[in-house]
Write a structure and sequence with these properties.
elongated, disordered N terminus
Length: 65
């Protein structure tokens, strides 16, 4: 069974949300369950953001004859 997870940063701190419908405080989770998905999310964000910047800068300019 695949469990989709999401990290929510709110005024009260960092929370972990899974598809089953429970929100668990960061203090209740083991460290390894938090660090690995967090770094994966950050790495994917950096990869997509760099691609977006490259796409935006290349699509902005047009060749004028």
């Amino acid at each position: 069974m695949i469990v989709w997870s999401l990290f929510i940063i709110d005024d009260m701190g960092l929370f972990f949300y899974n598809k089953i419908g429970s929100i668990i405080s960061i203090g209740d989770l083991p460290t390894t369950n938090i660090i690995e998905p967090f770094y994966l999310t950050i790495m994917l964000y950096k990869l997509v953001w760099k691609w977006y910047i490259i796409y935006e800068t290349t699509s902005r300019y047009y060749k004028v004859d």
